[in-house]
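Fold sample X.
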Amino acid sequence: MSTASGRSRRAFVLGISGLGVGLALEACGGGAVAAPSPYSGELRTAALAVALENQAVSAYQAIDAALRAGKLGPAVPALAAFVQTALAHHVQHAATWNAILRAAHKPAVTGIPLSGNAQVMSTVGSASDLGAAVAAVQRLEIQAAQTYTAAIESLTGLGSTVTAAATIAPVEAMHAAALGYLF
């Protein structure tokens, strides 16, 4: 492989990564005119990451409640255990990303400022069987893994954001794969 070819591929990957992060950030805005964000640069990516993690926490809590109430069919102990484990991971991931924001003297993200959150939660809440519930959270896991993987190339200023993205992305991918295996 020539150096020019390597640079060309890297430029392409960086461009796609920037586009992916930009589209994800746009999804947070919902197209409405809002007050200026307190986050810029890599901190915007960290804020998006917290929102994605908070959304996953909310979705897993809803599935956990539905499993406990028997609304998703017969109990599947392996899935119930997985839900609890994934929920704990997402709580920790949100704390990691919020710690980065707080270290930069920015406000922590406590809600889910994502334009598609109502639709995601509606899908999770209306799931009447395990397949639909699993598919909904599997999509969230894939989205988070892809977002963090794409962001890694564009994160350069804060070592903590690169480390967080690089260590959390594989966990999200593992969750998605495990959900595919369990159901």
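Fold sample Y, listed below.
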Amino acid sequence: MTSNNRNDDALTQLYLCLRLCEQCAAECIEQGSASLANCIKLCLACADSCRLCIKAMSYGLNNSNDICQTCAQLCEDCAAECEKGEGDLMQRCAEACRKCAEMCRQMAA
């Protein structure tokens, strides 16, 4: 796989994770349960880190590796929290976060 294809795959995975995290956070907010507060916070933080990682990679910034490492950790934290949930969206979000974390670690290596 060429570097360009790898970057395109990473950007696609980051965008998917960002989108699912935002959807998951919105769904949790709609449920209005205080027990979902940590999930909402992690989903929003994960979405923001994915957005930053996408921008850093798109701009070709030299420190995108550090940003990708941080994004990977936030994705892992978010996945762990979403896996506790029962809804389909939470499970899809967790899966996307795990894949994104793996991709970010590969990009940072």
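Sample Y note: The radius of gyration is 14 Å.
Also: Helices lie at 3-31, 37-59, 64-82, 88-108.
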